[in-house]
Amino acid sequence: MKVAVLDITGKDTGRKVELSKDVFGIEPNDHAIYLDVKQYLANQRQGTHKSKERAEISGSTRKIKKQKGTGTARAGSIKSGVFRGGGRMFGPRPRDYSFKLNKSLKRLARKSALSIQAKDENVIVIEDFNFETPKTKNFLDVLKSLELDTRKSLFVLSNENANVYLSSRNLKKSKVIKASELYTYGVLNTNKLVITEGSLEEINTNLSK
């Protein structure tokens, strides 16, 4: 699949690049995508949730009524979870939600996500660019030229570019990452995937292993 290369003003440069069939043209594996997205979302969880259990509640420890003869259930502590103000039974405890996935599966998931976006014609290839100084207005001009100012977009650069990254940081609908940071959830959770020429080769190298 060939895609036209645009400049940052949105004009066609007259050149085209080939999107590798091994990366942008495979049959998507839905289960691999599901696992990779699940892992990403799990890693975002802090896991700091906690509720007090009966051992952590302040209160009397005396037996509140005799064991037998009351006609009701036996009760040994006012801190029991069955009483108002007692500790919570089987409440949440701090935990780590992360889990491991094989590298080959994660590569398959990313290629599947890229293939879905390429099939839906949501991949834009632009020339490598830079800003002299970090300025949000400069990045907004690029978005408007590409008609992405009102849509979600993910920019993939070939290497770390502080000026471009800082220029985009205040914009909720746009995100800038390096090719080595490409992730399945980000690729799918965007309307347009904007890839620079330099990063395209790096993506092909990283995902063709």
From TrEMBL:
A biological process from GO: translation
Pfam families tied to this protein: Ribosomal_L4
InterPro entries (alphabetical): Ribosomal_uL4, Ribosomal_uL4-like, Ribosomal_uL4_dom_sf
Gene Ontology CC entries for this record: ribonucleoprotein complex; ribosome
Keywords tagged on the record: Ribonucleoprotein, Ribosomal protein, RNA-binding, rRNA-binding
Domain of life: Bacteria
Protein name: Large ribosomal subunit protein uL4
Natural source organism: Polaribacter irgensii 23-P
Gene encoding the protein: rplD
